[in-house]
Design goal:
Layout: H1 13-21, H2 25-29, H3 32-44, H4 51-75, H5 81-105
Length: 119
């Protein structure tokens, strides 16, 4: 008789990296970069080792970027500082998920800077 441990978390660094890279759906759909990682996180946070930490980081990062965009809208009236805010959000939103996807493949914890912890 074979004993199976149903509570053991499996290690899947590829899925962690895909979760980080799914944030690029923001550039295609405008909202998929928040929804798709949220769905992947909810579906596999109890099954994949490290998914809870990575998923929380991704959701906090996406919500922080959304907040920075909302703040940048009225800042456009202040000497165009909002345009600089939009540009910085776009660059950070493009570079940081790639860096963290590489970290996920290597088994390292995520590091999203300028992120407000919502969850």
């Amino acid at each position: 008789m074979e004993v199976v441990n149903h509570h053991a978390l499996r290690r899947d660094n590829t899925l962690l990296a895909i979760t980080h890279l799914s944030q690029f759906l923001d550039y295609v759909t405008g909202f998929g970069g928040l929804l798709v990682p949220l769905i992947i996180w909810f579906a596999s946070k109890d099954k994949i080792q490290g998914m809870d930490q990575h998923g929380r980081s991704i959701i906090n990062f996406q919500l922080s970027l959304l907040l920075y965009i909302v703040i940048s809208i009225p800042a456009i009236l202040l000497l165009g500082l909002g345009l600089l805010g939009f540009l910085s959000v776009a660059l950070i939103g493009f570079i940081v998920p790639i860096v963290n996807a590489v970290k996920a493949v290597n088994g390292e914890p995520p590091s999203y800077f300028m992120t407000i912890r919502f969850i």
